[in-house]
Amino acid sequence: QKEVEQDPGPLSVPEGAIVSLNCTYSNSAFQYFMWYRQYSRKGPELLMYTYSSGNKEDGRFTAQVDKSSKYISLFIRDSQPSDSATYLCAMRPSGGSYIPTFGRGTSLIVHP
Amino acid sequence: GAVVSQHPSRVICKSGTSVKIECRSLDFQATTMFWYRQFPKQSLMLMATSNEGSKATYEQGVEKDKFLINHASLTLSTLTVTSAHPEDSSFYICSARRDSNTEAFFGQGTRLTVV
Predict the structure, then answer these.
(1) Which residues of chain A have a CB within 8 Å of the CB of B93?
(2) Could you read off the pLDDT of A24-41 as tens digits, one per residue?
(3) B73-94 as b/e, with b when 16 or more CB fall inside 10 Å?
(4) Average pLDDT, chain B
(5) What's the pLDDT score for residue A54?
(6) Are B34 and B106 a contacting pair, CB within 8 Å?
(7) Can you name the residues that pair with A3 across neighbouring β-strands?
């Protein structure tokens, strides 16, 4: 079992839909949780960054962490075609080398 | 967010030659830089971690003589793919972070094609 599991998709939704992207993990030591957006042939861009359990909102994006279930989510409201990209979750413990472990990414397609 | 510049964005080279990829932190000093490799529809595979002024730490299975990493300053790290072969063709991405309490920012990636 991989440390971080993420469905590769693709996930295809119509413009304006609410998108839910998810990751599960097995390492209970993970304390920091990140979501990155990666456009084709580009490097990942940090979207959201949360510590421990709870919700964090930034514009149309909401990150949710449920440590008891080892499950994290990213919600995108009012999705736009420009949101079409691959979304990678990442997480790391609070100590040690601080190197994050990445999911394989979910490909999202928002069609007009 | 902070800016990390990676150059070149795309390179095609002949088999047996070496290729150097640069990663620069433009508006901050990066104590640590990371080099990743990414295959199509796959996640980022960490190759090595480099701290300024010291030797890089390579992940298991990554040949350090094949992938030479130099982190000579707080704003520059280079990855040299030596004696490149077609199987080295991939997307290489660097990231840089100011310190261990901050997240890393990624460069735009380099598409390497070895023919």
Answers:
(1) 43-44
(2) 999 999 999 999 999 998
(3) ebbbbbbebeebeeebbbbbbb
(4) 92
(5) 87
(6) no
(7) none
What contacts B48, CB < 8 A, 6 or more positions away? B34, B35, B56, B57, B58, B59, B62, B64, B67, B69
Which tokens in the block code for residue A60? 């149309």
Size of interface A-B (CB pairs under 8 A): 45
User: Quick one: pLDDT band at residue B41, thresholds 50, 70, 90?
Assistant: confident
Taking only the tens place, the pLDDT of each residue in B62-105 is: 999 999 999 889 999 999 999 999 999 999 999 999 887 778 89
- State the Cα–Cα distance between residues B92 and B87, nearest whole angstrom: 13
Mutate to test the interface with A, among B9, B35, B44 (most CBs of A within 10 A): B44
**Which residues of A are less than 8 Å from B34 in CB distance?**
99
Residues paired with A89 in a beta bridge: A35
Contacts with B, A 4-43, CB within 8 Å = 6, 8, 32, 34, 36, 41-43
Task: Output the CA torsion sign for A53, A59, B102, A45.
Answer: positive
